[in-house]
Amino acid sequence: MPTPHGFLRVAPAILGLALATTPLPVLAQATVAGRVTVLERAGARTDDLENAVLWLEPLDAPRAAAPTATEIVMEARRFRPAVRVVPPGSQVRFANYDPFRHNVFSDAGPGRFDLGLYGRGQSRSANVDAAGVYPVFCNIHARMVAYLIAVPSRWFAQAGADGAYQIADVPAGRYRLHAWHDRGGEATREIAVAAGHLATDVQLDARGWRFVPHKNKYGQDYPPETRDRY
C-alpha cells in the first residue's frame, strides 16, 4: 500500500526473506603451484620426483580433510604407487597381484601395523590414524618399500614426474608449506596466500642420502634373496 510520501511499505516478513537470501561473500581462493627439484651428488640424476609430496598447514584455522579409503597394490615385487598421500584416519588396502605371498608391515612411523602373510588375489587393510610418515615394507622381499604420508590438511598434492605440483582452491590466509621426499627429507616455509595464483618452487637436498638396508619385522637382517618360495 502506498504511504503518504509515495513509497511502498514492505512487510517485515518479506524484508526478512530478502535479507536471508542475500548471497554470502565468497572467500578469495588461490592456486599454489610450482616445481620441486632435488639436489643430488655429483653425477647422480633425479628420476623419482613423483615421490615428492607437498601440503599446506593453515596457520590461522587448521582444517583437516575427511578420512578416505584408498589402495596400494603389490605387483612384480613392488608397491604401486610407492608413495600415497592420505588424511589421518584413513584406511589403506594392500592388494596382492603377485603369484606369491607378501607380508606387509610398518614399524617406523607414528603407528605400527602387520598384515601377516597372504597370497595372490587377496587384500588386507591398515588404518592410518595419526599424521606422519609411515614407511611400509614386505617381510619377505627386502627391496619392497613404500610410504604412506598422512597430512593434517585438506590442501595437498603430489608432484609429477617433472616435479611440477599444483594445489587448487586454497582460501586466502597464512600457511606453512611442507615439502617431503623420501631421499630429500622435508623442508618448510611460511607463505601468504591471496586470490589468484601463487608460484613457489621448492628445492630439497638428497646429497647426504645413502641407502641403508632396513630390518625385517623381527629386527633382523633379511636372508639373501633367492627365487621366491612364496
CA distance, first residue to last residue: 88 Å
- Helical content (DSSP H or I, runs of 4+): under 10%
Treating each run of at least 4 consecutive H or I residues as one helix, how many helices? 1
Sequence of secondary-structure elements: HEEEEEEEEEEEEEEEEE
Summing up helix and strand content along with how strands pair, one would put the structural category as: mainly beta
Low-confidence stretches: 1-26
| Biggest sheet character | 5 strands, mixed
Strand content: over 45%
Number of strands: 17
The residue-averaged pLDDT reads 88
Radius of gyration: 25 Å
The order of strands across the largest sheet is 5-11-10-7-8
Question: What is the global morphology?
Answer: globular
